[in-house]
Write a structure and sequence with these properties.
Structural class: alpha/beta
Bound molecules: pyridoxal-5'-phosphate
Order of helices and strands: EHEHHEHEHEHEHEHEHEEEEEEEEEHHE
Helix content: 25-40%
Organism: Aquipseudomonas alcaligenes
Radius of gyration: 23 Å
Mean pLDDT: 97
Pathway: Amino-acid biosynthesis; D-alanine biosynthesis; D-alanine from L-alanine: step 1/1
Number of helices: 11
Keywords: Isomerase, Pyridoxal phosphate
Strand order of the largest sheet: 2-3-4-5-6-7-8-9
Largest sheet: 8 strands, parallel, barrel
Shape: elongated
Low-confidence stretches: none
Catalytic activity: L-alanine = D-alanine
Number of strands: 18
Cofactor: pyridoxal 5'-phosphate
Length: about 350
């Protein structure tokens, strides 16, 4: 069997969830959209089900997957419904629903529902992606309340630059939020992972941790709270071939690496078809048999090559960590021009093996 695999530590997932709650002092919706950032939505939700205040996903398809797996906790649809017809399923499965646009308010006013909805009313406080305009926010709130179709409204917004510690934009967005809300008394939800870890002054009744649940930092620089996260995924494989090359020999497609000295090259069963970033350059950290070394040459579809020159004891069958507790996914992402979010979401083909369930 091909030795590439992703080990998922559900105990670490629970540690990170508890940390989100501890740091924020708030209730936390575990964000498990995009198949829990590649970690497996059902397994992750099951592992958190006993203690989580609820879950958040991107769309009803993802929510139904969790309901069909027996998850009874609240599930928030982060973009609400994409078409009006979804409202009957939202009603039937008792999903919580973001409302970010006037047409969604109108659809709820028209809807025939068995039970009143839980709505998270989203304000565009400056990210300019989705959300109601500040001038229409209070009106939308009043209409939803008056519709008789809604039993509770949480006030929500989303930050564009919370991962930049010295950026004034988050404070500006917060000020705009308070201005638009204009005295409305309701529960508030503003913080994603970087805002949970880095902006304790932003108020919240509910937080929405995503990437931090999976143990990766959203920051480019070291950050005190992020250092407390435990990586959940270990992407690992084995050395399947070894080459002893003299100086001056090219390795791999495009001869992107040429040996400068006699070089021992290890070939690892892992490639971009597994989700390892193709743009990882020579020098990207890799751990072989517990020792740090570097990627060399171009990453190909099913294999990549590493430098074993300084690791004489490593060879065929040696265990390789591509990312995990020792090689941080965020470091691999940074040198590859990516982010850990994308690395995790790109995971495919490799079997996921769970522990700590
Ligand atoms: C994805 C998402 C989150 C989680 O973001 P992280 O940066 O992964 O913590 C929170 N809120 C909304 C609205 C999202 O879409």
């Amino acid at each position: 069997m091909r030795p590439a695999r992703a080990l998922i530590d559900l105990e670490a997932l629970r540690h990170n969830y508890r940390l989100a709650r501890e740091i924020s002092g708030a209730k936390a919706l575990a964000v498990v959209k995009a198949d829990a950032y590649g970690h497996g939505a059902t397994r992750c939700a099951e592992a958190l089900a006993a203690e989580a205040d609820g879950f958040a996903v991107a769309c009803i398809e993802e929510a139904l997957e969790l309901r069909y797996a027996g998850i009874r906790k609240p599930i928030l649809l982060l973009e609400g419904f994409f078409e009006e017809a979804e409202l009957s399923l939202i009603d039937q499965h008792q999903l919580w629903c973001v409302v970010h646009a006037a047409w969604q308010v109108e659809a709820i006013e028209r809807a025939r529902l068995a039970r009143p909805l839980q709505v998270w009313l989203k304000l565009d406080s400056g990210m300019h992606r989705v959300g109601l305009h500040p001038a229409e926010y209070r009106d939308a709130h009043a209409r939803l309340l008056a519709s008789g179709k809604v039993e509770k409204i949480v006030l929500m917004s989303h930050f564009a630059r919370a991962d930049e510690p010295d950026c004034p934009r988050s404070a500006e967005q917060l000020a705009l939020f308070h201005e638009a809300r204009n005295g409305l008394q309701a529960e508030i939800s503003l913080r994603n992972s970087p805002a949970i870890l880095g902006w304790p002054e932003i108020p919240s009744d509910w937080v929405r941790p995503g990437i931090m649940l999976y143990g990766a930092t959203p920051f480019e620089q070291a950050q005190e709270q992020a250092a407390r996260l435990k990586p959940v995924m270990t992407l690992e494989s084995k050395i399947i071939s070894v080459r002893e090359l003299p100086a001056g020999e090219p390795v791999g497609y495009g001869a992107r690496f040429v040996s400068e000295r006699p070089t021992r090259v290890g070939v690892v069963a892992m490639g971009y078809a597994d989700g390892y970033p193709r743009h990882a350059p020579t020098g990207t950290p890799v751990m072989v048999d517990g020792q740090l070394t570097r990627l060399i040459g171009r990453v190909s579809m099913d294999m990549l090559t590493v430098d074993l020159t300084e690791l004489p004891q490593a060879g065929l069958g040696s265990r390789v960590e591509l990312w995990g507790r020792n090689v941080l996914a965020s470091d691999v992402a940074q040198v590859s021009g990516s982010i850990p979010y994308q690395l995790f979401c790109n995971l495919k083909r490799v079997p996921r093996l769970y522990s700590g369930g």
